[in-house]
Amino acid sequence: MDETLFFESAAGIAARIRRGELSSSEFTLALIDRIRESQLNAYCTVAASAVDAARRADSVVAAGEETTKFPLLGVPVSVKDNIETAGIRTSYGSRVFAEYVPDSDAVCVRRLKAAGAVIIGKTALPEFATKGVVDSPLLGITRNPWDLTKVVGGSSGGAAAAVAAGLGPLAVGNDQAGSIRMPAALCGVAGLKPTGGRIPFAPNLFPWDQLFHVGLISRTVDDLELGLGVLEGLDPDDPLSVPAVDLPLRHAGRLSVAWSSSIGFATIEPEVLSIVREALTDIGSTADVEEVGIDLSPAALAYSILVPFKRAIETGNRLDEWADRMDPEVVDYIRLGQKMGVDDVRTGLRARSAVYVETERVLGEYDFIVTPTLSVPAFEIGLTGPSVIDGVPTTSFRDWFPYTYPFNLSGHPAVSVPAGFTADGLPVGIQIVGKRFSDRAVLALARVIEAARPWASTRPPFR
């Protein structure tokens, strides 16, 4: 099969299938072969049902049925392995769930199938999506397609590696602290974390979770919007889901962007900052960009309390039973959460509120906030983060992704798109954040960068 087809957009693949130019089943079979030959370990499971689903898509076309009601007709889509899939193993990256096969689909998977998508398989993640690198004891290490010695990022790392390497045009993941945007930036693809609740997340180990946001990874901004249209909207299974609403921007006339490279507490490698600043100039044709003082430093305190606390809630009283089968770093992190008391949680919630208030303050004056996506490019496998950033020793595993997790805490939509490459050929991302429920406006600004420095045709050396 023509290699270029594996780097076609999801929208392009769907259009070819609808016109009868491409057989979904033939494409799916070729893609499965490609996945099985891959060096990356991006997938942990190839769905046995994928070929039958693709044949059903072909039969819709052959029968002359109306196909416009299936926006993803015959398109292979991957699903992160902490999102439940009926009849397909969902391991959560853990030996604890190594044999778990759900009886029903998550809401987002149901919506994918209703749109005609082919669930091609499940993508790798760290255990319980807890780390920023993919190295679970069950699933192993996922490697970066730009350099096999480098991390892919996490926790939706398998998803980003797959899209970057032409192992599927569209991936569904989720994002608690940057888990879509981090690997998207490290792999040179686009990743969207929508407004909190916009895409329902159910079933969920902790259904009242306001940090985990379901989102998408793709090679094009248009595909992000295509996927958003399929997945968004209220669902009774998710008590925190919200209706699909697009609120207008508050300012008439030319758009305005608040730019910050520090957000009050971030350290960044100079080469990364230089690449992002160069991409920032592309926005100048569409919006007025102003460097603004933004202080999101309370996010570090909020994250350090609320995330391990939430992990402890999810695990409940099962940790002692499970611990000997788990990643020791994940066990330690959950035990940290178990030690949190009322005063700690109160402090964390107040810090979270401060992040929300500051974000709203800035977005009350500007249409968007733009930052780097990460402080560093991809680093060596075996590390959970760099030991030094711009000559400053790191003190936390969070230090290399300070730009992403504040907006999980605040619930605002954020997208990462490629900004360029380092001298070593590693991708760098730029992040655009918007007002809540301005997801499509955020994507529209991302398209400006995409048009100025197109990346969809760029192919990594490994797959």
From TrEMBL:
Gene3D superfamilies: Amidase signature (AS) domain. InterPro entries: Amidase, Amidase_CS, Amidase_dom, AS_sf. Residues 26-443 form the Amidase domain. PANTHER family: GLUTAMYL-TRNA(GLN) AMIDOTRANSFERASE SUBUNIT A, MITOCHONDRIAL, TRANSAMIDASE. Belongs to the amidase family. This is Amidase. It comes from Saxibacter everestensis. The lineage of its organism: Bacteria, Bacillati, Actinomycetota, Actinomycetes, Micrococcales.
